[in-house]
Each structure stands twice: as structure tokens, then as C-alpha cells.
Amino acid sequence: MELATQPEFEREELAQIYVRRGVDVVLARQVADQMMARDALAAHAQDELGISEITSAKPIQAALTSAATFAVGAAMPLAMVMVSPASMLVATVSVASLAFLALLGAIGAKAGGANVVRATLRVTFWGAFAMALTAGIGAVVGKAI
């Protein structure tokens, strides 16, 4: 919308991005003109917002990764059910689920370039919160959820 309503401002904004990168003002304006003549939206998306082919969404890859993560995340606690004694089942599965959640959170953070410690703590905290909330609702209604 800004490109349609304020093309001169957007051209100058793009030129200033190039100036900050070390291009001479006159040349930066020429580059901005040429980039905007070719594809103004793509030029602004890439240089102003940092959106490019590399950073654009890949829905198929995201869906497959999500499916694999959920499958692995579900299989780990189920494996604990098979090896845990019945008397320790709830505690073992709860602790193992949080540990596996933390591990997967750390792997996801590392893969995504995020702060691993912060991401792991966030995922573990909210996982524990969700478990506690579910157990609390179950206690209130008198059913294991």
C-alpha cells in the first residue's frame, strides 16, 4: 500500500538502506530506481524487511517436520509406559515427558538459531504448566485426563 501511495518516500527509504551499506547517495538512488522499476515489492521485501527466497515459508517442509516431531514426541513417553513399573507410571511418564520435551525444545532451538537455554526453559515451563492444568482439571471433575 505504501508503494502505491508514497512511491517517492519508499524510493528514498530504499536508497538510504543502500547508503547505510556504503553505497554513494547518487548511486544508491539509481539502484533504488532500477530495483523498484523491476519489482518494487520484492526489492523492499528483501532489503527493507529481510524477506527473501531463503527466509520465505516452506509449508511442506514445515508440515513434515511438525509431523515427525509430534510422532517422536509421542513415542518417547509411550516407550516409558512399557518400561516403567505400574506403581511409578504417572511419575515416570510425567518426568520423562518433560525431559523429552526439553530435549526436543533444545534441538528445535538449535536448528532454528534461537537461544537454546531460553527456548528449552520456555518449552519445559509451558509443558509442565499444561500437565499441571490438565491434572488439576482431572482432579476437579474426578477423572484422569
Describe this structure in words.
The chain has helices spanning 2-5, 7-20, 25-47, 59-83, 89-112, 116-141. α2 packs across α3, α4 packs antiparallel against α5 (89-112) and α5 (89-112) packs antiparallel against α6. Helices cover 80% and strands 0% of the residues. It has two domains: 2-47, no CATH class; 59-141, no CATH class. It has six helices and no strands. The protein is mainly alpha-helical and 145 residues long. The mean pLDDT is 84.
Query: In percent terms, what proportion of residues is strand?
Result: under 5%
- Tell me the overall shape: elongated
**Can you tell me the residue ranges where pLDDT is under 50 for at least 5 consecutive residues?**
none
> How many H/I helices?
6
Entry summary:
The chain is an all-alpha fold and 145 residues long. It is built from six helices and no strands. It folds into two domains: 2-47, no CATH class; 59-141, no CATH class.
